[in-house]
Write a structure and sequence with these properties.
The structure holds two protein chains of two kinds. In chain A, the strands form two sheets. In chain A, strands 2, 3, 4, 5, 6 and 7 form a six-stranded antiparallel β-sheet that branches. Chain A has a four-stranded antiparallel β-sheet with strand order 1-10-9-8, covered by helices on one side. In chain A, 62% of the residues lie in helices and 11% in strands. Chain A has helices spanning 2-30, 33-62, 69-74, 81-86, 92-113, 119-143, 167-196, 201-232, 243-268, 272-295, 308-332, 347-379, 387-407, 418-424, 426-442, 448-471, 479-488, 491-515, 623-640, 643-646; strands at residues 518-524, 529-532, 535-546, 551-561, 564-569, 572-576, 581-585, 587-591, 594-601, 612-620. In chain A, β2 and β3 form a beta hairpin. By secondary structure, chain A is an alpha+beta fold. Chain B is an alpha/beta fold. Chain B is elongated, with a radius of gyration of 21 Å. Helices cover 42% and strands 18% of the residues of chain B. The chains are: A alpha+beta, B alpha/beta. The interface between A and B is large, with 48 and 36 residues.
């Protein structure tokens, strides 16, 4: 009964979305206030209906209702409760339902929270949002219904892929989807503005918090995913440039560009058409990602259920949404008048460079991801593009970006004094230079680029702190006055400092763990001693342990350093009998200096009794990757909590683009 | 000019869309990419012999030391195409002075030994990969599969599926000829 209720709610949601897709936008063209305002209630209703459907599916998972096909395929009565719940979005159908739920959530949030958005813009935005919803709801109802029943019902289910039975990964899709799908509302805002033919600073100010919210969630989702890959897959890496990783990274890169270009539109009325284009492209890349993941277009280690019928449906969806919005863009963009003038050396100039580099980086990742497909289509050759391509093309674009990130916040609008800024940063430049020498002295092995990248990270961190301290005039005035300024500086500015510093911290981790990693993979028997990065690791043996729905072989490794015991590592290899698969649980000893990382796999062969494959890695500074990511997320949240972004958003003033707004 | 520029994103999107449309062709298998091992050293593995065959086991070391190219054939007694391929491989070994080694993939030693006793054993070494671990290291997608390891232990060729058609045989012979030429 409950699954049928879910199905019914989903069908009603589709009908509601159709009403929401037609009535408000029609009302906006007729200037009918009542029709326009209907969007608020239909958007809220649509969210409630999809939430009911989602609840119904979740309930089926929680009570292990094996008359529902989706539950049979992805759950099992022995599974811990947390993973029963997470199983709701563990499959193609369930994750699509989560997708649609978040899509409706953002629509409802704009409907309810966006009181100060002009009625016409709001109505059009919510209608566009509803059209995306119609696409996904019908996709679900026609090709991937999560409520399909199975008869006769089996006694137990097939279990969720054990790799997915992990807290990090169970929480990862919701976060990632909030990011992915959150950009939809920015897309809808952009399309609505194109239909209206009007983009002004007020528009940018309405769009920015939604962009920021999506960006924060996407940052968290990507970081959580890479953390999961690091400790769960047992290979000791956190990024593989796999197509599925790339498709979440591309909207992040372009979303970052959008975040910055929207500032220029908001403060200076410039970059209008560019901001609109970025808003469209960012969500288009999210959609393209969905297409790639679910159609099986490219090989990936994360491949979802592959089905050409689904692929064609999503491609149709993409054609309408991306093709339609870009056609509209091409037709309407000339009507937007250009904004304020600025000198090359200025805040605008810096942000322009930021945008160009981020767009170039996105294009590189897009090219690398799709190149195998293009090549196969044109010549029939099958190749795979891996980390070497991305590392050699992506890093040289990002390093200059980080370099200008250090200067950017010092630049003033319209025209800036570069010589003055450099002279204020002379100590920072000196320390960054010295740190390069120090790094080179400590670590002579590894590429020279790593030393340069390390110095650039130091530069960004110090330049960011320097800008922050000059903002509160630390050391120049009494401490109490500095603290007073600290409180008065807008939170968005602190957020920017936190995020920029976070990226510098991330870079320490990126560089350290990829350039100076030590790795040993060998066959061992109990009593074997391995030396790595100054540690003496002894393999003591393996014991069998029984878990709730698995059995595990737990290895024992005693770690010594200079003759003193440091720790005991217990890497696990788990066997899940129901799903007939195995997972690796790495044992990690984390310190700020680096991680000692161990994983084991079963005996190479049953005849060689007691032989295990042991992988031991030392990953310098790797913890900074996630600490820095947390800083990025926290910085974003800090900006999001800025009152100016929420309350008192300006009434739409008639094209007073260059009115004096205090520079950030 | 500006008008053309604003059409650029649309054109790029159409290009990607066409590629995506083409890529959805159901006959296309995106998974069929050549081995990532090509031009790389053979993976690290160590397999004991298949009990009852009297043929020694196989480990990385055996592939590194050879001066001649080696054919590494992944097979199993439960795999029907392997049976068809077996005759071709046996003839090649008999007539062409070829070093053939085997990885017995996810097979019971007793069944594998019986299979070889029945069909003949052209392998100079056979490793028993009961867990499929070595198969993972080699990145195989199914049995049978055949690799050519050049002198010095570099993987130079991979063939997926049985070597039973003339076309497949010609490819293998071609790759062997190249491997013999570039001795270290």
């Amino acid at each position: 009964m409950i699954p049928e209720l879910g199905q019914f709610a989903l069908t009603l949601a589709l009908i509601t979305a159709v009403v929401q897709g037609v009535l408000p936008i029609w009302g906006a063209s007729l200037n009918n206030a009542l029709w326009m305002r209907s969007a608020t209630s239909t958007a809220s209703l649509q969210f409630v209906l999809i939430a009911i459907a989602f609840g119904a599916l979740m309930r089926s998972f929680v009570v292990s209702d094996f008359t529902v096909l989706n539950v049979v395929e992805n759950s099992n009565s022995l599974k811990p409760m947390l993973f029963k719940v997470a199983g709701t979005w563990g499959s193609h159908e369930g994750s699509l339902l989560l997708w649609t739920l978040i899509l409706a959530l953002f629509g409802a949030a704009v409907a309810v929270l966006g009181r100060n958005i002009p009625t016409g813009l709001k109505a059009r935005t919510l209608s566009v949002q509803a059209w995306i919803s119609i696409g996904f709801l019908s996709f679900m109802l026609f090709t991937s219904n999560p409520f399909d029943r199975v008869f006769p019902a089996p006694l137990d289910g097939n279990d969720l892929n054990p790799l997915l039975q992990d807290v990090g990964l169970a929480m990862h899709p919701p976060l990632l989807y909030i990011g992915y799908v959150g950009f939809s509302i920015v897309f809808s805002f952009a399309v609505a503005a194109l239909i209206e033919g009007r983009v002004d600073p007020a528009w940018a100010r309405w769009v920015r918090p939604w962009t920021l919210a999506a960006w924060v969630a996407l940052t968290g989702g990507i970081a959580l995913g890479s953390w999961w890959a690091y400790y769960e897959l047992g290979w000791g890496g956190w990024w593989f440039w796999d197509p599925v990783e790339n498709v979440s990274f591309m909207p992040w890169l372009l979303g970052t560009a959008l975040l910055h270009s929207a500032i220029v539109t908001e403060k200076r009325g410039a970059f209008k058409s560019w901001t609109i284009l970025l808003a469209i492209l960012t969500f288009s890349l999210s959609l393209l990602g969905t297409f790639i993941v679910r159609s099986g277009l490219l090989t990936s280690v994360h491949a979802f259920a592959v089905d050409p019928e689904r692929g064609i449906y999503i491609l149709g969806l993409l054609t309408v949404s991306i093709g339609g919005s870009l056609t509209l863009y091409a037709a309407r963009v000339h009507k937007m008048e250009p904004g304020g003038l600025f000198a090359p050396i200025s805040r605008e100039g810096g942000l322009l460079l930021n945008n160009l580099l981020l767009t170039l980086a996105t294009a590189t990742v897009l090219f690398g991801t799709l190149y195998p497909l293009f090549l196969e289509g044109l010549t029939g050759d099958k190749i795979s593009v891996g980390p070497p391509f991305f590392n050699t093309s992506f890093i040289p674009i990002m390093l200059p970006l980080v370099l200008i990130m250090g200067i950017g916040p010092f630049l003033s609008w319209k025209r800036a004094d570069l010589a003055g800024i450099i002279s204020r940063l002379k100590w920072v430049i000196l320390i960054a230079g010295i740190s390069a020498l120090v790094v080179w002295y400590i670590q002579t092995k590894g590429p020279a680029l790593a030393v340069i990248a390390m110095a650039i990270a130091v530069w960004l961190l110090l330049a960011t702190l320097r800008e922050w301290s000059s903002r509160i005039r630390l050391g120049q005035v009494e401490l109490t006055e500095s603290l007073d300024r600290l409180r008065r500086v807008p939170r968005a500015a602190h957020g920017m400092t936190m995020a920029h510093a976070g990226l510098a911290v991330c870079m320490f981790g990126f560089v350290g763990s990829s350039a100076w990693k030590s790795e040993e993979v060998l066959f061992v028997q109990p009593g074997k001693l391995v030396q790595i990065a100054g540690f003496d690791v002894t393999f003591e043996g393996v014991e069998q342990v029984q878990g709730p729905n698995y059995t595990a072989s737990v290895g024992k490794l005693s770690v010594m350093r200079n003759g003193r015991p440091v720790t005991i590592l217990r890497p696990e290899r788990r066997s899940y009998p129901v799903a007939q698969s195995q997972t690796t649980e790495a044992a990690i000893r984390s310190t700020p200096a680096g991680d000692l990382y161990a994983s084991i796999t079963e005996p190479v062969n049953q005849e060689i009794e007691g032989q295990w494959t042991l992988r031991i890695l030392y990953e310098p500074l790797v913890g900074f990757v996630w600490f820095g990511s947390l800083m990025l997320v926290f910085g974003g949240l800090l900006s999001l909590s800025d009152r100016r972004l929420r309350v008192g958003a300006p009434k739409r003033k008639a094209r007073s683009a260059s009115l004096p707004i205090a520079a950030e | 000019m500006k008008k053309l520029l604003s059409l650029l994103p649309l054109c790029a999107a159409i290009g990607i869309g066409i590629a995506g449309w083409w890529g959805l062709n159901p006959n296309r298998d995106p998974g069929a990419i050549p081995s990532v091992l090509i031009d790389k050293p053979v993976p690290v593995f160590e397999l004991s012999d298949v009990a009852g065959t009297g043929t020694p086991g196989l480990a990385t070391q055996d592939l590194l030391m050879s001066q001649e190219p080696i054919l590494v054939n992944v097979f199993a007694s439960w795999c029907l195409p392997c049976r068809a391929e077996h005759a071709v491989l046996a003839r090649m070994v008999r007539e062409e002075d070829l070093n053939l080694v085997g990885i017995n993939y996810k097979d019971k030693p007793a069944t594998a030994a019986k299979w070889l006793a029945e069909l003949g054993n052209p392998y100079s070494r056979i490793g028993s990969d009961q867990t499929g671990r070595a198969g993972i290291e080699w990145g195989i997608s199914g049995v049978p599969e055949t690799f050519i390891v050049g002198p010095g232990g570099k993987v130079i060729f991979r063939h997926v599926g049985p070597i039973s058609s003339d076309a497949a045989l010609a490819k293998i012979r071609g790759a062997l000829a190249v491997a013999r030429k570039d001795k270290p």
